[in-house]
Amino acid sequence: MSETVNTFEAQQEGRPTGPLVRGYEVIIGFETHAQLSTASKIFSRASTAFGAEPNTQACAVDLALPGTLPVMNKGAVERAIKLGLALGSHIAPRSVFARKNYFYPDLPKGYQISQFEIPVVQGGTVSFFLGEELKTVRLVRAHLEEDAGKSLHEDFIGQSGIDLNRAGTPLLEIVTEPDMRSTAEAVAYAKELHKIVTWIGICDGNMQEGSFRCDANVSVRKPGEKLGTRREIKNLNSFKFMQQAIDYEIRWQIEQIEDGGKVEQATVLFNPDTGETRAMRAKEDSADYRYFPDPDLPPLVIATDWIERVKAEMPELPRAMAERYVRDHGLSAYDAAQLTQSATLAAYFDEAVNAGATPKLASNWITGEMARRLNAAEIGIEAAPVKAQQLGQLIRRIADGTLPNNAARQVFDALWTGEGSDVDAIIEAKDLKPMADTGALDTILDEVIAKNAKNVEEYRGGKEKALNALVGQVMKASGGKANPAQVTELLKAKLAA
């Protein structure tokens, strides 16, 4: 529950505008709560495991009972350092915890321990592709804080239940500048941030369980005008709902202004059943929370050698891996970004290449045929029936001329459906080897030329596309066994005679 101040005109000078919606520019900033993957809470030893019976994992420290004192979880701090290193942020050598005072039924202390004036992670950027365009969103900060409990409304008629299991769970709240200019850009940013926190292992990213929750601050304005009044959409826990909620909120704000009304600053909730947002409460600003330094917690001091130790243990980051793919494998920046969408996908690509696949062909198959099949089956790459070693073997047979593309797809289909597990055995069983009898191929060429006089005439008249039609006819007549490159060259020679 951060308070991104809505006075960013200076920072917005020179920022690119996005597509206009009914003549209005859309301004979006994000506040994301990433639950840190520690086994215990941020200031106590109580468990953070998901799914326990209500109120069985909240200890006296989480409830701030008299005589208890919070003790900082070292693992939570290390995860904050990892995020700062991953995003190119400044890691504050000294940061301060504060009490954020407000009443809520599931906040037993009556305050939340957070960071305000000096957060642990400051600045940084998140870069990602929107289509083939590289976008960059600037970060304001990422600060450590504790989660509140949870109010339960569905199971109690006329009453609310309180589950305090989440109270004290460690969070990193990651706050952006209002740099996003469309719903698509906002969702792409959220997906990239989700990839980063799961890649470096600081958060499990489970949105259904609340481990990765996004709040979107949305406003609209006419181009060149001051920033409009923002409304904060709380607790978006799926990318699909995120898109629907922001789209609805943009339309609502524009209609409100066009009808002569005024957008009031507010916190709103999205109802996926109706597809609408509704105001929950007036949006507070930082003054409403009466922040003051927490008297029970000393400043958090992070020594340089601690940062260096954490840095030495970091995995290769996705952007560094993508740059390596471009440099070492000759892939485009876009293809490299697609292959580093997850650590498991990148590992699959690496294994296929190590199995002998040419990198470009491996990239094409993974982001093309493989991605299509995975999406249709609604599974991830880790559950793909075609293993990386098998794809590597398949691509080797394409590269050495054993398999034309259409025959390769037949082999891939057999691997996918479990009809076979060895590429060479499938090729033999399905008799997919290319034609070795040049005399038979020569006969097919003559027959195709004789039967397609119009295409022959057009090609000889200068229409290069007519040759493709002839190649297609030869491939069809050969049952896909002819080599397309060889067919093309032989056809050109015959038609030039």
Mean pLDDT score, rounded?
91
Rg from alpha-carbon coordinates: 29 Å
Distance between the termini: 77 Å
- What is the SS-derived class? alpha+beta
The stretches of 5 or more residues where confidence is low (pLDDT under 50) are 1-11
Largest sheet: 10 strands, mixed
Based on Cα principal axes, name the global outline. elongated
Description:
39% of the residues lie in helices and 18% in strands. The chain is an alpha+beta fold and 497 residues long. The chain has three domains: 15-305, no CATH class; 316-430, no CATH class; 438-496, Orthogonal Bundle (Arc Repressor Mutant, subunit A), CATH 1.10.10.410. Helix 6 packs across helix 7, helix 13 packs across helix 15 and helix 13 packs across helix 16 (484-496). The radius of gyration is 29 Å and the shape is elongated. The N and C termini lie far apart (77 Å). This is Aspartyl/glutamyl-tRNA(Asn/Gln) amidotransferase subunit B.
